[in-house]
Structure formats: structure tokens, C-alpha cells
């Protein structure tokens, strides 16, 4: 059996999927936050759709019992460094391998690597990042480098900017190892990971509904993308900050809400833009999210307006510190409260929420 066959066999046996590590404010039917809003909460905090990070598979295991001598003889030929297939790649720490991002946004790419159990691999001295635009030629991404961890190679990739006049570009990224020059002949090679694909949209070229909902955040979240939901990304919400598709707006449903003023509808973009700030100000990866959630709970609290003469909007069941932060950030920009998770933004919360707009963590 060739080394390649053994790699393939073990791959089939070793797939492991863990349950999602993220628990966020669930969707579910909202309670009307104000009478004029026809029963919709502003959004869900993030989409829980398709976000399960995949655990990298276990190292390869030899199932046959070899004599010690045979193992030793074969081990010398098997210090191979290789990548697992595409399903183990991660984009910004999530288990999907395609995404939509706005021009000017960077991503994190991870690929699981493997070798044979019990064999110390010869690690490549460097792991480069390669990109190809719209299916063109693979070229090296300057300033990006893969770091080899215990199970994953991780690379932070600088922002991609779509050239003026181009609507969008599909960019594939992969990791490529510097050729190993020592050790057994079979180990002396360069290997490439499978790819992830990002559609980068040029916000300056937005038209129609994309332009409408990008306009209120052009100066707040200039690098964000606005996806108009046609496939149910937002589920039963009218807007969402989705890990895979970015700020997503259900424009068709909003069109049916004829009693809701435009300023409120555009406020959805601002609220989602605040979620984007939460994500990117905290590092822009799934790995950083729990830190943000914990910090949000320290700052954003379920309190009422201390002034007995001012009624506080009751808190929706989906109220959470994370959502309250986005609400308060939105109110700093657009104070109307047609849509809100309810509650009261106190001075400390407004100050903290304001930091989001300065690209800082609260
Ligand atoms: Zn929200």
C-alpha cells in the first residue's frame, strides 16, 4: 500500500465533528418592541447557520500490527507533512470555506495538517499564502505567513482591495509550504492546502438595495459588505450580521413593512454595522468571540431608566449584552427607537458603545 493510499484511508476514518462552541442570542419569534414595528426584533445577533467549526481530525493511525523493525524502516520514509482536505479548512475560525466580504477586509485562513502518528514530521521552514483572483494564476500574498500550530496552520491575510470600477472579485486563498530540502526523498517537497474562496464586493459599485443599506454605514463600516437576502440567511429576522455573508438585509420583507419609517429600516444597517465592529475590533475571528461576549456582559447591563417619568422599553426575550451594545451604538448615530431590544442605555454604556465607532474595544 502506498503512502498516499494510507493517508486516504485514514482520512476517511478520522472525521470528527464537534458541536458548536458558540451560543448566541437565538432567533425565534420576537416580541414587538414598539407598537409600530409589526412584531420584529431588530435582528439576530449573529446567524447560527453553518458556523460549526470543524475539529481537525485525529492524527493518522496505523491499524495493522507491524513488527518493530518494519515500523522503523517505514517510519524513516514517512515524516511527511501534508494538509487535510477542504472540509477541514476554516475561514475566520469557522467551518465554512466560502464567504462574502467587503473590499478592504482581511481574513484568517486555517488548514489542518497531518502526519503519521508516532512519526516526527519534518516541518516546512515557512508556510506562504497564495491567492488567485477570479481563477487566475496563483501568486504569493506579500506580508502573509502561515504559523504551524499543533493541528492547524494559521495565517492572517491582509485586506484585499477590489480595484476601482470592478464590481466584485472572487479570491481563492491557500497555504503553500516552502520546499523541504532535507530528510528522505519523499519528504523533500512542497505541498499546498486546499483553498477557501472569498467574494470581495466593491462598495463603491453598489446599486439598488445594496446601495440603499450601505449608505448609512459608508462612514462607519466602510469595509463592510451588504448582502441582500434572497436565500433565507436572515431566517425570521430582517437583518443580521452573519459570519459567512456579513451584514445581510431582508429587503423584501422590509418592503412589506409599509408603516415603518425609512430611518428605522436604515437603522438596521447601523445596528448590524455595530455587530461587525464587535467582531472585527475583537480580532475578526471565531476564536475571539467568547472574549467579546464575556466583556459585553461586564459592561452592558439590563437596567431601566432611573428617571421614573421616562418609560423604559421592555426588554425583548432576546435581549443580551451583545445586542444591547449594538442598540446603544446605533442610538448614538440614529437616536430613534422604532426597533430595539429594549432597556436603557446608561452613560457608561453609551461611552463604551461609542468606542466601537472608533475601532476600539470596550
Ligand atoms: Zn443585533
Protein described:
This protein is of the alpha+beta class. It folds into 2 domains: 23-48 and 216-356, no CATH class; 65-201, Immunoglobulin-like (Sandwich). The chain is 25% helix and 20% strand. The protein has 8 helices and 12 strands. The strands form 2 sheets. Strands 1, 2, 3, 4, 5, 6, 7, 8 and 9 form a 9-stranded mixed sheet that branches. It has a 3-stranded mixed sheet with strand order 10-12-11. A hairpin with a 5-residue loop joins strand 5 and strand 6. It is elongated and about 85 Å long. The model is unreliable at 1-42 and 44-53 (pLDDT under 50). Residues 42-43, 45, 271, 275, 323, 326 line the site of zinc ion. Zinc ion binds next to helix 5 and helix 7.
What is the fold's blueprint, element by element?
Layout: H1 3-13, H2 68-75, E1 82-83, E2 90-91, E3 98-102, E4 105-114, E5 127-133, E6 139-148, E7 152-160, E8 168-177, E9 196-201, H3 208-214, E10 226-228, E11 239-242, E12 246-249, H4 251-256, H5 262-281, H6 286-299, H7 321-333, H8 347-357
Parallel strand pairs: 3-9, 10-12
Antiparallel strand pairs: 1-4, 2-4, 4-7, 5-6, 5-8, 6-7, 8-9, 11-12
Helix pairs in contact: 5-7, 7-8
This protein binds zinc ion.
Zinc ion binds at residues 42-43, 45, 271, 275, 323, 326.
